Amino acid sequence: MARLEHGLECAPVMKRNRFFPLVAALALLLTACPRKNEVGTATAPNTGDILIGEYGSLTGPQATFGQSTHNGIMMAIDAVNAAGGIHGRKIKVLTEDDQSKQEEAANAVTKLISQNNVLAILGEVGSSNSLAAAPICQANKVPMVTPSSTNPKVTTIGDYIFRICFTDNDVGSNMARYVVEQMHVKRAAILTDVKTDYSTGLTATIEKTFTSLGGQIVGRASYSNGDSDFRSQLTAIKQTKPEVIFLPGYYTDVGQIAIQARDLGMTQPFVGGDGWESPKLVEIGGKALEGSIYANHYFYADPTPVVRNFVQSYRDRYGAVPDGMAALAFDAARVLADALKRAKALDGPSVRDAIAQTRDFPGVTGSITIGPDRNAVGKKMVIEEIKNGQLTLKGVIEPRGAAVQAAATR
Amino acid sequence: MQEFLQNLLNGVAVGAIYALIALGYTMVYGILKLINFAHGDIFMLGSFTGFYAGGWAAAHLNGRAGTWMSWLVAGAVMLLAMTVCGLFGYLNERIAYRPLRHAPRIASLITAIGVSFFLEYGGQFVFGPDPKFFPTLVKKHLIRVDGIVTTNYQVLVLIVAVIFMAILQFIIYGTKFGRAMRAVSFNFETASLMGVPTDRIISMTFIIGSVLAAVAGILYGLSYPKIDPLMGILPGLKAFIAAVLGGIGNVPGAVVGGLVIGIIESFVGASQFSSFRDAIAFVILIVILLFRPSGLFGKYEPEKV
Predict the structure, then answer these.
(1) Shortest CA gap B34–chain A (Å)
(2) Does a structural domain hold residue B195?
(3) Fewest beta carbons less than 10 Å away: which of A10, A358, A387, B44?
(4) In a mutagenesis test of the A interface, which of B44, B153, B274 is the best target, namely the one with the most A β-carbons within 10 Å?
């Protein structure tokens, strides 16, 4: 279907010669009215609400990512507004659902920028979706802050694209190192989702680090996000007798894969990244995930006051424990609000400069400093284990620094 | 050897589900020369009926049910899904295809695609587009035979599929209705001149095909418990390929075709080409059509003008 839709998009371009003046005139007429109080955001209005766009996977295969993110953002923005907003003006969040699809992410961002004239954009979780939307934000000079896209490519799109979480390079190398050094594993297999940038990126770093530390990747197999049958790939992996199976995928597939692996009599633990982070993970995987571990951005039962307060107010508001996506979204929205307060003017370039100057912002997921590559630098990582159907803290990996440098040159 | 047998077993379990869906394609094609593209979505409706009914039953039984009770519930859920899908199959034919019976065949074909989209996106609207998780109707346990591991679910899939195929075989070759069906398939006009109630026969064919799709939907839901409104597209396409592979219009051909596709997929998935798994199924379709346009079991009949 994607191809058909694409064809439809092309149609007006082909007809531009004849109909363009007419279409343009109509478009002007149509957009003139609703834009009355938002006219010329580009020239910084100084009254009314400040419009911020959010695009996310509110429905579709990664729905819990989008929903948690939305909850986190709304909680943060409501708190900012309750505390007086930005120089007395309130922030208004306009939310678009991209159905976990790349083409919809691009459409959503185009709509937010061209129709709603938003000042900045928050989103996405899935790296593929962020990569589809980022070039549009960059071209329109609208700063975009992704709470939780970890693929390194996302922020290389341009100087308007920021991220407040660690990248796949950090996750991949830390996971591989953890498995080798703490679990003393020598043989591992990797099962990659070839359809997402997240999974292929993570696979590359895991492989590199794992083999450089003396481990051996004995089995490799791949699947496509949304497949149902993984038995044949798992049968192939089973023959190679790995000690653990790296599974850098998203939670919907992870649960199914684990169940089918146990059906085949495989007992190895799975090791994953933050794509596992969802309240649905254990609900789907159940007992099959017992003993498996994954890297995450924060641990909900962390005793520090900042995390405790966040978890408590999230619980009061939504009646659920916030997952990592909610925590990162909460931080992303607060970093953006903080930047809006500091910005010299409320336009794209000034807001971008303000975000880039973020230093030691006290976030729920750790202290946030935006580095020269527009990524958050020096964030800690937690390793969670599924034990008796509960997420438990297995380890904390402190920010990479001297220790890692030493390991790399060893 | 163990790996070979394990892959074979996995393939047969998937293939049996494809075969059940393929039967619906092939029966409708045999009678109407129409490819009912909405068939994969009827399969999806079967899964969703099972999801809601099974979820309701699980909530009300609260795990109090004994083994025989849970089997009974599973049977009831399947019967309900069969009823719902049979009804949809009937309505589909009655509303969308019957008025076009004498229109050019391309009109029915496009209508079939329309009905398919209607069910897919209607499903997204009614059920919501996010994936749901099929309830565990019967307790699952592992079965180990000589290094090969399977579950009682895979065995169940095979047994149920074989039972329904046997019933279908009996209906087609052992009943008066089956004879009428074969007559309509052989020559639509002559059959109606001989007093065969063709409209009723066609309705029944749609109902039977849809009932089989419902069975496939439940078995699929049990084996791969993640279901969503677009889940019918790929299994539907593969079952269609299975039907063409076996010779479209040919009932045993659909069964063989389904098993062959399932087994090939399983072996491709286990090789290093696992990301090409779906592509392989379509390559097979193209190759078969090039060398045997009428499929493995089909008779080649030039179009009569």
Answers:
(1) 22
(2) yes
(3) A10
(4) B274
Residue B289 within a domain = no
**Alpha-carbon distance A223 to nearest alpha carbon in chain B (angstroms):** 6
**B146 lies in some domain:** yes
Q: Give the Cα separation of A354 and A392 in Å (integer).
A: 37
CATH match for A44-166+307-377 among 3.55.10.10, 3.30.200.20, 3.40.50.2300, 3.30.70.660: 3.40.50.2300
Pick the CATH number of A169-296+381-409 from 3.30.70.1060, 3.40.50.2300, 3.40.50.10050, 3.40.50.300: 3.40.50.2300
Name the pairing type of β-strands A187-193 and A244-246.
parallel
Q: Residue ranges of the alpha helices (H) in B194-300?
A: 198-223, 233-246, 251-270, 277-291
Interhelix angle B198-223/B176-186, nearest 10 degrees: 100
Per-residue pLDDT, averaged over A274-300, amounts to 89
Q: What is the pTM of this model?
A: 0.79
**What domain range includes position B73?**
23-231
- In chain B, the number of structural domains is 1
B141 and chain A in contact, CB less than 8 A: no
Is residue A69 within 8 Å of A147, Cβ to Cβ?
Answer: yes
With beta carbons less than 8 A apart as the criterion, state whether A410 and A402 touch: no
CA distance B97 to chain A (A): 24
A169-296+381-409 and A44-166+307-377 share a CATH fold: yes
Q: Which residue positions in chain B have pLDDT lower than 50?
A: none
**How many Å separate Cα B71 from the centre of its chain?**
22
How far, in Å, CA of A320 to CA of A279, rounded? 9
Annotated domain spans of chain A: 44-166+307-377, 169-296+381-409
Closest CB from B130, B142, B220 relative to A263:
B142
Closest-CA residue of A relative to B7 is A232
A240 inside 8 A of chain B by CB: no
Instruction: Assess if residue B134 is contained within a domain.
Output: yes
Which pLDDT tens digit goes with each residue over B188-246?
A: 889 989 999 999 999 999 999 999 999 999 999 988 888 889 899 989 999 998 998 88
Interface test with A, best of B130, B230, B275 (most A CBs within 10 A): B130
Beta strands per DSSP E along A148-250: 161-163, 187-193, 216-223, 244-246
Which two structure tokens, joined as six digits, stand for A77?
Answer: 């923005």
d(CA A217, CA A206): 10
Give the number of A-B residue pairs with CB atoms closer than 8 Å: 83
Distance CA B33, CA B205 (A): 13
Distance, in Å, from the CA atom of B213 to the CA atom of A352, rounded to the nearest integer, reads 55
* Reported ipTM: 0.80
* Residue-by-residue DSSP string for A298-340: --TT--SHHHHHHHHHHHHHHSS---HHHHHHHHHHHHHHHHH
